[in-house]
């Protein structure tokens, strides 16, 4: 055999040996952290809306639906299809908050802590508690 063939075979053997040791990790979508305790709509979720959603120009009474004012948020979310109890991660509210729709909500950007609280609330049955 010629030296060129030997070098080619050695390079091929090295590539094959290295490729056997390589693998790809499965990339899972990043999930938002969920609180451990029971989530209260009034005590945990409404304050998130109060922090930046229910202003007169955003999702307050008479503004862009859903109405996320404290008095109307629960009815607006549950009666207009924003909550999916069968597949909480597919809830419109959650997808908007994660920025997986046209514009992230709030427009200042997604907040993983808030997202986790809302997702946990939905998974816990989206109760008016």
Task: Provide the structure class.
Answer: mainly alpha
Taking the sheet with the most strands, its summary is: none
Mean pLDDT: 84
Gyration radius, to the nearest Å?
Answer: 25 Å
Helix content: 40-55%
Number of helices: 5
The fraction of residues assigned to DSSP E strands is under 5%
Write the layout of secondary structure elements.
Blueprint: H1 3-21, H2 41-52, H3 73-79, H4 92-97, H5 112-123
Helix pairs in contact: 2-5
Explained architecture:
There is one protein chain. It contains five helices and no strands. Helix 2 runs antiparallel to helix 5. With 129 residues, the protein is an all-alpha fold. It has helices at 3-21, 41-52, 73-79, 92-97, 112-123.
Task: Write a compact overview of the structure shown.
43% of the residues lie in helices and 0% in strands.
Question: Keyphrases for this structure?
Answer:
elongated, 129 residues, mainly alpha, single chain
